[in-house]
Design brief:
heterodimer; A: two-stranded antiparallel sheet; 13 helices; about 0% strand; flat; B: alpha/beta; D-Maltodextrin-Binding Protein, domain 2
């Protein structure tokens, strides 16, 4: 009887398992396998180099690590600025305010726009010669701040990070709002009856109950931002120099620019492993945070 | 009795099923010759959005003439096209005719993998009638000579459809506004720098080009390098015999710093894509542009009244002749595994005949690859074509620089322009990467 039930369970998950294996596990295995070869993506012959590509990525490819650093910086901005903004706006929209539904729609507009369009529009806003930002700075009496925002190595990465956050905060907003709406209103009412202040209510009710949602948003933000690519290619193409290069751009450069498919596959696998490790660390931290609260 | 009937019934059912299946199998395995022979259909993959309509019209004309159907399939942008062709090669699903975008190294890989037909015999047929149609420079890009370092059997592997040169263009109206003679563009680098200073004084913008796309920086840097040190030294550098820290290479890098210091380069040029550069020049927001001959069509579309002239990049030295990048703009290759190889070659022969080449040139404002078709071209295009003899291209040098070295060199120039690094620092960095790549090559 038990055997039959187990078999039944396995039969139910079999279709999903087959699809997952075909579309995820097998491609992953193939990419890893290609990462062990020196291959230009065209020749029928591949040269086996073992872990040589991985060794090169870890110990010799400085630009790869620089691109990782850039992606980490953009992620940091997204984790703090973008998510804080999303959370605050979600808190505001969770209250009984006028035009609440209108704000919800407005805040969700940036994520649904095409990344290429957003990149090109912001490129135009930040243009050093005819950009709106510079024009406003002059009108407002700050001509000394005028610069070519995307070609200046001091500002290019910050601009990309801010635009990325602007584009992405709507997702966090939506998830936070959904999370806030699951908190029973009775808890707030009881706390108010007991004389709790707004800050106490936030600290003792909202925050602890929102931690699982915050973890989810944080993990999604890290995974989404580390893999940012379209926006950057539309805004700066990775330049000036290597100042806005990110790992996905490097993978593309290895594949297309250098015709090193094997190396690009190894970069892809290494990047995937790094993301898994980061997500795992985040998950562990979140568990601890939940325990504290 | 009943059992017996049921058995016979089910036996008959099974028999009928097998019979139907058998008919399907026989029909499927039968030779196609037994049916009416279908008209040959040639499929061509290309990335040239601007030539889409002209190609379709030519395909129709060809079908009317020969009965052979030609299907042009457009895959744009060129990056997506490149990936499509690579993926098709891996899956052995390449069309009858296709183009290979990329460096000579990639072209060689396709040939060595057996995907590209050797067209030498066809080209040499009838006293090289087909071969002699083309500009020599256009054919060179598709040719592997006996001394090629790629390990490819010598021969001609592609058919040029059009040619291009990459030069400078200048806005004649803005030139006048600056107080210069619009018919006398700068000839040497000093004159160019002096104009830059005037541009800065007047608050105008100087040179635009798609320098976020690294190959365009590489192109201008190579123009300067050929003029300063000559082709041999450039080739010896690629071979690893001359270091990038050589004073001549530092001079090449310094020229970019001088252009920036003189105010010649457009503010933000290092993150500019060529489409933006074309828009800026067409809208008279910049005095100069560094662009290829395809720009004639682009500018015409953006601003038909734009008054501009074509000039060679300024001369830096008298030691060696000036060189510009040029040769075949786009070429087609025949799939060596195609079932319609003969038909594909016949179509390409027809496509490169004078009449079709004139049609393509008139419709798309590109320079024809057939040298007898230059008669009726746009005057700006003629200016680009005038300097065909000065053209060179990395694809005909016989050796290729390591992609990482090219990237470090071009990104280094970006760093010089934004004032982050000196030419000496960049030269040293490039040389370090070069040495690493050479060591790796030796090791393998």
């Amino acid at each position: 009887m038990r055997f039959k039930s187990t078999l039944e369970n396995y039969l139910f998950i079999l279709p999903a398992l087959v699809i997952f294996s075909i579309f995820y596990i097998y491609p992953f295995y193939k990419v890893f396998q290609l990462g062990l070869y020196d291959w230009d993506g065209i020749s029928p012959t591949k040269v086996f180099v073992g872990l040589g590509n991985f060794k090169e990525i870890i110990f010799e490819d400085k630009i790869w690590w620089y691109s990782m650093l850039n992606a980490s910086y953009i992620t940091l901005i997204a984790l703090t600025f973008q998510n804080a903004l999303a959370f605050l706006l979600a808190l505001a929209c969770d209250r009984e305010i006028r035009l609440r539904n209108f704000y919800r729609v407005v805040f969700f507009i940036p994520p649904v726009l095409s990344e290429v369009v957003v990149g090109l529009v912001w490129q135009w806003i930040l243009d050093g010669n005819y950009g709106i930002l510079n024009s406003w700075l002059v009108k407002l009496g700050f001509p000394h701040l005028v610069r070519n925002w995307l070609s200046d190595p001091r500002t290019a990465l910050n601009c990309v990070a801010i635009v990325h956050s602007w584009k992405g905060f709507g997702w966090g907003f939506l998830i936070f709002l959904a999370g806030l709406q699951t908190i029973p209103r009775e808890l707030y009412e009881a706390a108010r009856v007991d004389g709790a202040s707004a800050w106490q209510i936030f600290k003792k009710i909202t925050l602890p109950l929102m931690i699982p949602v915050m973890v989810l948003v944080a993990i999604l933000t890290v995974l989404g931002t580390m893999q940012a690519f379209v926006l950057i290619i539309a805004m700066t193409g990775g330049g000036p120099g290597y100042h806005t290069e990110v790992p996905v751009l490097r993978i593309l450069a290895s594949m297309r620019g250098s015709s090193r498919f094997g190396y690009a596959c190894a970069q892809g696998i290494s990047f995937g492993v790094i993301l898994v490790i980061v997500s795992f660390i985040q998950y562990r931290f979140s568990r601890r945070a939940r325990e504290i609260y | 009795m009943k059992k017996g009937r049921r058995f016979i019934k089910s036996f008959l059912k099974i028999k009928i099923c097998y019979l139907i299946l058998g008919l399907f199998v026989i029909n499927g395995c039968g030779s196609p010759q037994r049916l009416t022979k279908p008209k040959p259909t040639i499929t061509v993959w290309h990335w040239m959005t601007d030539r889409k309509d002209a190609f379709l019209e030519l395909a129709q004309r060809y079908e009317e003439k020969t009965g052979v159907k030609v299907i042009f399939e457009l895959y744009a942008p060129s990056d997506a096209y490149t990936q499509k062709v690579r993926a098709a090669a891996q899956g052995n699903t390449l069309p009858d005719i296709f183009g290979i975008l990329g460096e000579m190294r990639d072209f060689a890989s396709f040939i060595k993998a057996g995907y590209v037909e050797d067209l030498t015999d066809e080209m040499e047929e009838n006293f090289a009638e087909w071969k002699n149609r083309f500009f020599k420079k256009a054919l060179e890009v598709n040719e592997f000579t006996a001394d090629n370092t790629y390990g490819v059997k010598p021969g001609i592997y592609g058919v040029p459809i059009d040619i291009m040169t990459i030069q400078m263009v200048y806005n004649k109206r803005l030139f006048k506004e600056l107080g210069f003679d619009p018919e006398k563009p700068p000839q040497d680098f000093q004159e160019f720098i002096n104009i830059g200073k005037k541009i800065k004084e007047k608050g105008l913008q100087g040179l635009v080009s798609g320098w976020a796309e690294l190959w365009m920086i590489d192109c201008l840097a190579n123009n300067f390098a050929f003029n300063i040190m000559g082709k041999d030294k450039v080739i010896r550098t690629i071979k690893g015999e001359v270091p990038y820290t050589d004073p001549d290479w530092i001079k090449v890098l310094t020229l970019f710093k001088e252009m920036q210091d003189a105010g010649l380069l457009y503010n933000g040029i290092v993150t500019m894509i060529n489409k933006t550069a074309e828009q800026l020049f067409a809208n008279e927001k910049a005095v100069f542009a560094f662009n290829g001959s395809w720009c004639v069509n682009v500018y015409r579309g953006m601003n038909p009244d734009l008054d501009y002239g074509v000039m060679l990049p300024p001369k830096v030295s008298d030691k060696f002749p000036r060189s510009i990048w040029g040769g075949a703009g786009s070429s087609f290759m025949v799939n060596a595994n195609s079932s319609f190889k003969k038909e594909a070659i016949a179509f390409l022969k027809w496509l490169t005949e004078k009449e079709q080449q004139i049609f393509l040139s008139e419709k798309t404002f590109n320079l024809p690859a057939n040298k007898d078709s230059l008669g009726k071209i746009h005057p700006r295009l003629a200016e680009f074509a005038d300097d065909m003899e000065l053209t060179t291209h990395p694809r005909i040098w016989g050796v290729s620089e390591f992609p990482r070295v090219i990237e470090a060199f071009d990104k280094g120039i970006q760093s010089i322009i934004i004032g982050e690094k000196t030419p000496q620092e960049v030269a040293q960095e490039v040389q370090n990467i070069k040495e690493k790549e050479l060591a790796k090559k030796k090791g393998s």
